[in-house]
Amino acid sequence: MRLRAAIDAYLEFVEGRSDTRKTWLRARGVLSRFYQVAGNKLLDNLTPFDVSAYLAECRRLGNKKSTRDTNVKLLSGYWKWCQESEITERRSPIRSIHRLTGVTHRPPRTLTETEQARLLLACESYAKPFERARVRAVVTIALCCGMRRGEIAGLRLVDYEQEKHQFRVLGKGSKLRIQPIPEVAIPAIETLVVVVKEKGFDRLVCTNTGRQVGEGSLHAMWSRLLRKAGVPHVPFHSCRHTYAIRFFEGGHNLKVIQALLGHASLKTTEVYLQGLDVEQAKIDAVKREFAK
Predict the structure, then answer these.
(1) Of 170, 172, 177, residue with least CA distance to 18
(2) Residue 82: is it exposed, middle or buried by C-beta count within 10 angstroms (0-12/13-18/19+)?
(3) Low-confidence ranges of the chain (pLDDT < 70)
(4) So what's the pLDDT on residue 250?
(5) pLDDT for the residue numbered 125
(6) Three state DSSP letters for the chain
(7) How far, in Å, CA of 148 to CA of 18, rounded?
(8) What is the Cα–Cα distance from 281 to 220, expressed in whole angstroms?
(9) What residues contact residue 148 under an 8 Å CB cut-off, 6+ apart?
(10) Cα 210 to Cα 42: distance, rounded to the nearest angstrom
(11) Is this structure's pTM higher than 0.90?
C-alpha cells in the first residue's frame, strides 16, 4: 500500500476511536506534512532518511524540539497501527531516527509535595466562591485521581457516585472506567457539588453559565494558578504523572496503576515512570512489606 492510502485509513481509524476532534486534527497535520516531504511511496520503501527529511522540514518551519519529539511519537504510533492492521510487516523506519537527529525523550516532570501544597493553598486566593470551589476541585481531582484534563472537563453531577466515593469516567476511545476517589479529595469535590446544585447546573466542572469548561480554559486556569502559587511552569498533565509515581512508590504493581490511569497498554504506563529511582522504590517496598 502507498503512503497516502495508508494515511487515509489511519485517520479514519483515529476519527472513529478518538473522543476529541483535536486528536484527529493533530494526526492529520503531522501525517500530511510527512506525506508532502516523503511523497506517495510504497510503505515498504520508506526509510529513516525520509523521517529525517521530515524533521528537517519541521526545524525549518520553526517547530520546537518538544514538538518534533511529539511528532516522532505520532509517526511511531501510525507505523505500529500499520503493522497491527497487516498493511506492512516492515520494521519501522522511525525506530532508528534518534541516531540521525538526536531526538531524546526527557523523563516526565512531576510535582513535589511542597509544590502540590502551594498549588492547593493558592486555590484559596480566588475571591469568588464558585471560582474558588471549581479551581480547588479541579486541582484536587487531578492530583488525587490522576484524571486527564479532558476527563475532568467532561464530568457531570451524575458521574459522581457520592456513597461509593468514585467517578464514572469516559476516557480515551469512549471507554468507561470507575475512578476511586480518596478520602482526602472528598471535601473539595463535595463543596463544588453543593455550589453547582445551588445554581441548578448538571455539570460538575462548568462555566458560570453551566456550560462545559473547555480544555483550553482549564489550561489557562492552570497557568494562572501556577503563577499565583509561585511554582515553575509544568503542564497540567504532570499531575497525572505525579499520581502514577505516588502509587508506584507505594508498592503497587503496574497492572493496578494501568487500570487507575485508564491506559490501554502497559507500555504507556511504563513511560510515566521514566526517571524514577526504581531500585530505591524496590527497597522501600520491601521495607514496608516486612515492617507489617
Answers:
(1) 172
(2) buried
(3) 17-20, 96-108, 274-292
(4) 80
(5) 94
(6) CEHHHHHHHHHHHHHHHCCCHHHHHHHHHHHHHHHHHHCCCEHHHCCHHHHHHHHHHHHHCCCCHHHHHHHHHHHHHHHHHHHHCCCCCCCCCCCCHHHHHCCCCCCCCCCCHHHHHHHHHHHHHCCCHHHHHHHHHHHHHHHHHCCCHHHHHCCEHHHEECCCCEEEEECHHHCEEEEECCHHHHHHHHHHHHHHHHHCCCECCECCCCCECCHHHHHHHHHHHHHHHCCCCCCCCHHHHHHHHHHHHCCCCHHHHHHHHCCCCHHHHHHCCCCCCHHHHHHHHHHHHHCC
(7) 14
(8) 35
(9) 171, 172, 237, 240, 262
(10) 50
(11) no
Write down the residue that cell numbers 479541579 correspond to: 138
CB 142 within 8 A of CB 218: no
Q: How far apart are CA 10 and CA 28, in angstroms?
A: 9
CA distance 267 to 121: 35
- Backbone torsions φ then ψ of 180, nearest 5 degrees: -65, 145
The Cα 240–Cα 261 span in angstroms is 8
User: Can you read off the three cell numbers belonging to residue 9?
Assistant: 485509513
Q: What is the pLDDT of residues 72-110, one digit of tens each?
A: 888 988 888 888 777 887 788 887 665 444 444 556 688
CATH code linked to domain 113-240: 1.10.443.10
pLDDT of residue 52: 87
Residue-wise pLDDT for 237-249, tens only, equals 899 999 998 888 8
* CATH number listed for the domain at residues 3-101: 1.10.150.130
Task: State how far the Cα of 218 lies from the Cα of 215, in Å rounded to an integer.
Answer: 5
Q: What is the pLDDT of residue 103?
A: 45
Q: Which residues pair with 203 in a beta bridge?
A: 156
Give the model's pLDDT for residue 160: 96
